[in-house]
């Protein structure tokens, strides 16, 4: 049974289908049937007219962005409406967006799980080759330094910090247009902006309510 916030993405392949609504209504009904029952809300719907062979889909990008902003899941009617490209589906996983295909609800876990296993096997092989190379170097008498993976190196800590900062900056970029809309509507104080974000149902990165301090930090990144 569906619950929480959802963003729907509907796609047709031709301008004719897009203008006539052919295929869109069927997809919309498929989404509605999947969401039927439970405690859920459909925040937004995005419709795109684009060939499935292309990866650049602006409306899908907007849908993914909306999922991040509202802390919602992406729902599609049919798996082939999203993409037949496994690499593209992995991109969704990297974007931190959970998606469900109404016609195959378990496809998300199955698809991403298979790709994760493949990636894990690749990492395992790389790790094994690295360890074998280090062992061979040690046998040759080569002096091996470094942390040996026990204590994170300064470089590793810097990379981790950069990753967290990049995520925070991306989140701020997502929210910037909404902040400008709130300010244009007269909500210019930190408290008013926090109230506006909370009223819109937009959570903080930790899925909590906005406070004055958090809004101040957010504005510092915009």
Overall mean pLDDT score? 78
Task: Report strand order across the widest sheet.
Answer: 2-1-3-4
- Contiguous low-pLDDT stretches (5 residues minimum) are none
> What's the total count of β strands?
4
Q: Largest beta sheet, briefly? A: 4 strands, parallel
Q: Report the principal-axis shape.
A: flat
Distance between the termini: 38 Å
- Percentage of residues in helical conformation: 55-70%
Number of helices: 9
Overall SS class: alpha/beta
Q: What proportion of the residues form beta strands (DSSP E)?
A: 5-15%
The helix-strand sequence is EHHEHEHHEHHHH
Rg (C-alpha, Å) = 22 Å
Protein name: DNA invertase Pin-like site-specific DNA recombinase
Organism: Bradyrhizobium japonicum
Keywords: DNA integration, DNA recombination, DNA-binding
InterPro entries: DNA_bind_recombinase_dom (IPR011109), Recombinase_CS (IPR006118), Resolv_N (IPR006119), Resolvase-like_N_sf (IPR036162), SSR_resolvase (IPR050639)
Structure description:
By secondary structure, the protein is α/β, with parallel strands linked by helices. Helix content is 58%, strand content 12%. It has nine helices and four strands. It has helices spanning 15-20, 24-35, 58-70, 79-82, 86-94, 107-139, 154-184, 190-199, 212-221, and strands at residues 4-12, 40-49, 73-76, 99-101. A four-stranded parallel sheet has the order 2-1-3-4, with helices on both faces. Helix 7 (154-184) packs across helix 8 and helix 8 packs across helix 9 (212-221). The two termini are 38 Å apart. The mean pLDDT is 78.
């Amino acid at each position: 049974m569906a619950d929480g916030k959802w963003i729907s993405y509907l796609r047709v392949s031709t301008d004719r289908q897009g203008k006539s609504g052919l295929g869109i209504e069927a997809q919309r009904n498929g989404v509605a049937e999947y969401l039927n029952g439970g405690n859920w809300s459909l925040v937004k719907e995005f419709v795109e007219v684009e060939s499935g062979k292309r990866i650049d889909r602006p409306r899908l990008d907007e849908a993914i962005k909306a999922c991040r902003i509202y802390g919602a899941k992406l729902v599609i009617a049919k798996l082939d409406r999203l993409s037949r490209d496994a690499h593209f589906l992995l991109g969704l996983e990297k974007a931190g967006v959970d998606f469900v295909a109404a016609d195959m609800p378990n496809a998300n876990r199955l698809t991403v799980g298979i790709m994760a296993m493949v990636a894990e096997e690749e990492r395992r092989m790389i790790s094994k080759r690295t360890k074998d190379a280090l062992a061979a170097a040690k046998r040759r008498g080569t002096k091996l330094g470094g942390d040996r993976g026990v204590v994170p190196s300064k470089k590793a800590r810097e990379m981790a910090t950069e990753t967290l900062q990049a995520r925070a900056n991306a989140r701020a970029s997502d929210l910037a247009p909404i902040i400008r809309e709130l300010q244009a509507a007269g909500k210019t104080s930190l408290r008013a902006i926090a109230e506006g974000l909370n009223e819109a149902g937009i959570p903080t990165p930790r899925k909590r309510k906005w406070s004055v301090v958090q809004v101040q930090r957010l504005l510092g990144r915009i």
